[in-house]
Amino acid sequence: MRKALAMVAVFTCFAVPVRADVPPIDQCSKVGEACPNAGNEGKTAGTCVKSTCTRLNKATGKSDSYECTKCVEGPPPAPAKKSSGCAAGPPHGAHRGPAAIFAALLLVAARRRAG
Q1: For the chain, how many helices (H) and strands (E)?
Q2: Spatial distance between the Cα atoms of 42 and 35, rounded to a whole number of angstroms
Q3: Could you tell me which of 52, 51, 64 has the C-alpha nearest to residue 21?
Q4: Could you give the CA distance from residue 98 to residue 95 in angstroms, rounded to a whole number?
Q5: d(CA 89, CA 30)
Q6: FRET pair for 49, CA 20 to 30 Å: which of 1, 83, 99, 114?
Q7: CA gap 15, 27 in Å, rounded
Q8: pLDDT, greater one: 78 or 102
Q9: Is the pLDDT confidence value at 13 over 60?
Q10: Predicted confidence (pLDDT) at residue 79 exceeds the cutoff of 70
Q11: Stated pTM of the model
């Protein structure tokens, strides 16, 4: 019994607290999506954006930077509008078909007159 108590005392005295890598409170998964954990306390609605995070490198004792995603307060940015050009005109290259047929007909007519 004494051995067991001595072992428990030794393990309790020399126990080292364990530190796990805890993700930041404002971490999110997909860029551009809405997220509910923005702000200092993680209780504000926001949008997931690319960011740079830091973590302690246990081997060197210094902070390392890495790419991450964070929930930032505010609505998502408006998507860029795509310019489609003039919607009333024919698609690019569509005028070549009828013009080629007309040119072929003119060529046939000119050969018939000449021959």
Answers
A1: 2, 3
A2: 10
A3: 64
A4: 6
A5: 39
A6: 83
A7: 31
A8: 102
A9: no
A10: no
A11: 0.46
